[in-house]
């Protein structure tokens, strides 16, 4: 792994940023804002059906039961959730891992990219509010039904990164099995970064390499 033109792509949550990607509080807040925008009053049971993160049959039926278009309602709820999570980043709730500092030198020799299942607005807010290396490509998923279906392990956004950077090979550093699978489907080498939260996982997809720290990338890439 010594090619100078190899792109090096990263997942965000659990790789660059500490903590879980998002939590139910943000989705609940997004739902509350959506109900206000729709001027819609629902029962507790109806709210529970509308609160599910997944765009699935249960959510569609819950929307139909209260007389709203499922796709439009989901898109609006996602947009409000995206804003809530971005506000959380702006407030300093999310912190980066210390070893992210080691990537600055890597950026001098390789094109770096950031590709996440988190909302695109949240990812860009993270880039704006944290001292991250200069990424040549930054992409989170679009809010809404289409973006939901393009989440990893779908390789859509990884393929977009590879195409935008003019590369045909590279690495994707992630912390989950879905990251490794998406990398494989995009023609990339999936690298598993071990953190405290995933120290014991045994992914069904074999990684091209495993790292204990982002600092180990220099050695992996022959730098």
Structure description:
- With 223 residues, the chain is α/β, with parallel strands linked by helices.
- It has 2 domains: 7-18 and 95-220, HAD superfamily/HAD-like (Rossmann fold); 24-90.
- 42% of the residues lie in helices and 13% in strands.
- The protein has 10 helices and 6 strands, in the order βαααααβαβααβαββα.
- It has helices spanning 24-38, 44-50, 57-66, 70-90, 103-106, 120-129, 145-149, 156-164, 177-185, 217-220, and strands at 7-10, 112-119, 137-141, 170-174, 189-193, 209-211.
- A 6-stranded parallel sheet has the order 3-2-1-4-5-6, sandwiched between helices.
- Helix 1 (24-38) packs across helix 4 and helix 2 (44-50) packs across helix 3 (57-66).
- The longest helix has 21 residues, at 70-90.
- The chain is elongated and about 60 Å long.
- The model has no long low-confidence stretch (mean pLDDT 94).
- Keywords: Hydrolase.
- Belongs to the HAD-like hydrolase superfamily.
- It holds the Pfam family Hydrolase.
């Amino acid at each position: 792994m010594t090619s100078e033109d190899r792109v090096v792509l990263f997942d965000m949550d659990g790789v660059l940023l500490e903590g879980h990607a998002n939590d139910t509080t943000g989705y609940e807040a997004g739902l509350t804002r959506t109900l206000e925008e729709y001027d819609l009053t629902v029962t507790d049971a109806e709210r529970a059906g509308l609160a599910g993160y997944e765009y699935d049959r249960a959510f569609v039926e819950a929307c139909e039961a209260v007389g709203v278009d499922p796709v439009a309602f989901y898109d609006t709820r996602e947009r409000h959730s995206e804003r809530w999570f971005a506000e959380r980043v702006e407030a300093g709730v999310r912190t980066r891992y210390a070893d992210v500092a080691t990537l600055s030198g890597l950026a001098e020799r390789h094109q770096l990219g950031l590709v996440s299942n988190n909302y695109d607005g949240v990812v860009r807010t993270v880039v704006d509010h944290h001292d991250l290396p200069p990424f040549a490509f930054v992409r989170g998923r679009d809010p809404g039904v289409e973006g939901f279906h393009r989440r990893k392990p779908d390789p859509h956004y990884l393929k977009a990164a590879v195409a935008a950077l003019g590369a045909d090979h590279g690495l994707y550093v992630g912390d989950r099995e879905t990251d490794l699978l998406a990398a494989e489907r995009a023609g990339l080498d999936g690298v598993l970064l071990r953190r405290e939260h995933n120290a014991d996982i045994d992914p069904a997809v074999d990684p091209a390499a495993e790292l204990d720290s982002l600092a180990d990338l220099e050695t992996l890439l022959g730098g």
